[in-house]
# Entry
Amino acid sequence: MIKINQLMSIYNHKTPFEFKALHDVNTTFEPNKIHGIIGHTGSGKSTFIQHLNALLLPSSGEVIIGDTIINKKTKAKVFHKIRRSIGMVFQFPENQLFEETVMKDVMFGPLNIGIDEETARKNAEKYLTLLGIDESEYEASPFELSGGQMRKVAIAGILSMDQDTIIFDEPTAGLDPKSHIEVMDLIYNLNREHGKTIILVSHNMDDCYQYTDTIKIFSHGEIVSEGDTVDILQDEALLTSMNLELPKVARLTKDLKARGFNPNPPPRSTDEFISMYDMWRSSHAE
Amino acid sequence: MLSKVLIGRYIPGDSVIHALDPRSKILLTVLFMVIVFLANSWATYITLILFVLIVTKVAGLSIRFLFDGLKLILVLFIFTFLMHVFLTKGGTVLVDGGFFTIESEGIITGIFITLRLTLLVVVTTILTLTTSPIELTHGLERMFQPLKRIGFPVSEVAMMMSISLRFIPTLMDETEKIIKAQSARGSSFRMGGLKERFQALLSIFIPLFVSAFKRAEELAVAMDVRGYNVKGKRTSYRLLEWKSSDTIAIIIMILLAALLFGLRAIGL
Ligand SMILES: Nc1ncnc2c1ncn2[C@@H]1O[C@H](COP(=O)(O)OP(=O)(O)O)[C@@H](O)[C@H]1O
Ligand SMILES: [Mg+2]
# Structure
């Protein structure tokens, strides 16, 4: 369980560049779920998630992770412990690749946090396989791979540290459509099959609707709305007031309601929509 | 942390100092640096400190903020101070620790040299804080125009300077991002043996170089497609204009120099 109390965060405190990026954030993340975070650029999403693994410390307030409390006075010693329980995949994680080979790069994280060599290699193989990186590529230089492959190797580099909670900051930004789906499916599987708690920052409403269990909407450094994904992302009035759009599938379902198409639970992905719609049509065919 | 480094940063403003011609600001900074070397006593140093404090106020900068920016080079200051405290001899012996002595001259010289360094760093910081990188390059280009006649590539060097200045903040931001990404992977230069620390450094420098080269390549392509040509004759949108305030500023600086000579002459 992750709990955030009255979190306030100021960049460049006491300088002319001072900027209050988070005002008063209070929320919790339940374990074993996929939590979506949405909001416009600059609303404080990236700033917020960096507080969850002590890359940024609160200016005031606190972040509670299990039995560890992070506040402005937290010391570097504690960071190691936190990074063993929470993984962070930054935006454009391929920028953090640096080793000679794919395998070495993926093993860098686990070795740093004190996992032994053998387990580190096992983890690396497990997650590289999960991400569809072929064994023949383990000894290649990460810089020779395609953009999509580099992204996947970088993600494997975090996952191989095997934390319980993984944060993804816009993991599909700039990816081709195929890699996009692969990465989103992976994230879904990490939760459903490997029991990881996922925190996903995204501004793709369709992905959030299809893959997440809960949603928190950020605006101007605050959480303005949160709850179950189905409740939040079908609330057209709420989304419009935040200048956000309904997910496409929710839009279509809503538009077809007048014609009597009202499945419960509603479809969350294009595939689900098509099959439910087909079923509804054939059962209504004269 | 890195965002606290002030040299190279610019804060837009509408103070008299901001409005000065970049050429006069560069000239004033150089003059002040020369004047700093005239200071040799309490009275002269105090005069210079007062002068800098006034300039800071006039430029609309907070003194506190300026000193926060100095913290990073504090190590250098402390080192300089200690060097003089232990190595400069003369005056009365204050501490006699057997194999070393601390003498009054050492303390005084230490303080003076540290003040001198601080003043030099502070004026340079004030220069960049109040002058946009574009203005700065433009000013330098114009000041060194005469060197063109002896074949010195003034415009090219100016272009290089403006690109470098433009990318300092970008690179700082990039560095901060990479450091964070690697810390999230448990990398740390504070812990572990020599090998781990070296690895931690590599994990930051390699991605940094990769991204810098990528940026350089993109920029080169962008300049090429827009027809940048080193031989091309460039005109500029902003014309530099020497105003009466620039002349007054230079006169004030000369008066400051005269004041220091005066103080030295009467033995203060
Ligand atoms: N390192 C930083 N220094 C100063 N301001 C920052 C920094 N990072 C982000 N900000 C500012 O904080 C605000 C929130 O940014 P961010 O958390 O990146 O938003 P998001 O991820 O929602 O786009 C923005 O206004 C941004 O300009
Ligand atoms: Mg962001």
